[in-house]
Structures are given as C-alpha cells and as structure tokens.
C-alpha cells in the first residue's frame, strides 16, 4: 500500500496491520511519528512526480490530501501510474456540496474556512477526477445526519476506484 500524505499516521493505523505500507509526506516530524506504526516512511513532495516504479502498489490512499494540492489531477495520474492493473485508489476529501457550506455561501460567507484548501470538491468533481479508473464508488461519511441524505449532510466524500487491466 502507498499512503500519500500520511502525516502522523492517523488514517494509516486503520489499515497498517497485516499490510506492507509506504507512507510519504513532506513533514519529517510527522513521518517519524508514522514510522512508529511499523510502516516504511519516506520524505517526498507529492506535488512532484513520485520517485517510485510504475505498477508497484496494489492500493494507493490519499486521505484528506487532494484539496491541498495545486494540481490534484496530476497526483491522481501519478497514483494511477504506480498502481498495478486491477489495483485500487482510495481518496477522501471534504464535501463542498454539503448543506452547511451551501448555507454559508447563501449568507455571503465563503463555504470553506480552511485557507490551506486550494480546491473544493463536489461528488461530481471527485468522479471526474477518477474518470480514468473503473468501478468508481462514492460514499459519504462523517456527520450526524449522513443517513438522512449523504450528499447534503456528510462532511467527507470517500471514493474508491480500480485501475483498468
């Protein structure tokens, strides 16, 4: 597994056990903490082409990362390059489509308060980002009222897709 932008390993710890995981990040302190999970870590700027061989991973994870990227489509293309045929990509992004953001916009306020978020993703935008993959699946997570209407109530969009081949 390749964990892009692994940070301290908050998400990594959920799938590290029983898997070979390589975690990449630009924060050396965070990588030192992630390494304590027993995974391999490596400093890398994921805004640049990955120094990894093509078709070398079964799974690529980019959790809460794409919204911070200058060119998220380029990172998704790199993830596709390093995935083996039939491998899966799993991404999560804040749900810009959620009702809370819409109400903020209607009130004349920006829908996002985080200045590090360079992109806002709707479900359609996530699907478009993964257009080169097969079996794209979107799920909605995090929020008290997700069960009522995921697209409008979820804080997070989680997507997974399979590399053709």
Question: In a nutshell, what does this entry contain?
Answer:
With 165 residues, the chain is an alpha/beta fold.
CATH topology: Rossmann fold
CATH superfamily: Vaccinia Virus protein VP39
User: What's the alpha carbon Rg, rounded to whole Å?
Assistant: 16 Å
**Structural class assignment:** alpha/beta
Shape: globular
State the share of residues found in helices, binned by percent: 10-25%
Alpha carbon gap, first and last residue:
18 Å
Count of discrete domains: 1
Assess the beta-strand content as a share of residues. 25-35%
**CATH level 1 class label:** Alpha Beta
What's the helix count? 5
The order of strands across the largest sheet is: 3-2-1-4-5-7-6
- Would you identify the regions where 5 or more consecutive residues have pLDDT less than 50? none
Q: Could you give a short account of the major beta sheet?
A: 7 strands, mixed
Q: Which CATH architecture is right?
A: 3-Layer(aba) Sandwich
The number of distinct β-strands equals 7
What is the typical, i.e. mean, pLDDT?
Answer: 89
Task: Output the helix-strand order.
Answer: EEHEEHEHHEHE
């Amino acid at each position: 597994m390749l964990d892009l932008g692994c940070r301290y390993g908050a998400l990594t710890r959920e799938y590290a056990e029983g898997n070979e995981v390589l975690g990449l990040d630009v924060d050396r302190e965070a990588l030192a903490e992630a390494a304590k999970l027993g995974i391999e870590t490596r400093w890398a700027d994921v805004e640049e082409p990955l120094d990894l061989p093509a078709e070398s991973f079964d799974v690529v994870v980019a959790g809460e990362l794409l919204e911070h990227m200058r060119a998220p489509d380029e990172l998704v293309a790199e993830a596709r390059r390093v995935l083996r045929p039939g491998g899966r990509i799993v991404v999560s992004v804040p749900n810009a489509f959620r009702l809370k953001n819409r109400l903020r916009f209607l009130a004349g306020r920006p829908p996002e308060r985080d200045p590090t978020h360079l992109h806002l993703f709707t479900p359609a935008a996530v699907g478009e980002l993964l257009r080169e993959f097969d079996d794209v699946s979107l799920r909605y997570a995090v929020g008290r009222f997700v069960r009522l209407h995921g697209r409008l109530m979820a804080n997070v969009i989680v997507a997974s897709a399979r590399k053709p081949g």
